[in-house]
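Fig. S4 source data, part A: sequence.
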Amino acid sequence: MGHHVTVMSRVDCHACERAEADVERVCGELGATWSVEDVDTDPEWRAEYGDRVPVILVDGTEHGYWEVEEPRLRAALA
């Protein structure tokens, strides 16, 4: 079964844009699926993740925040 990465993001967030680009590249290389969710569309997401975006989830579990730690993400998807 393949892994899925979710980037919890928000509009006009430059760190989020960098994280999305990194996740897109890594997932593309490793064959994992990925998606982006806007934390500001859901009050629970905003409360949970809003002060730490971008937050990276791997298979629904929080993996990291503020930036993509590429070696760690690659290991999680291997």
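Fig. S4 source data, part B ends here. The mean pLDDT is 96.
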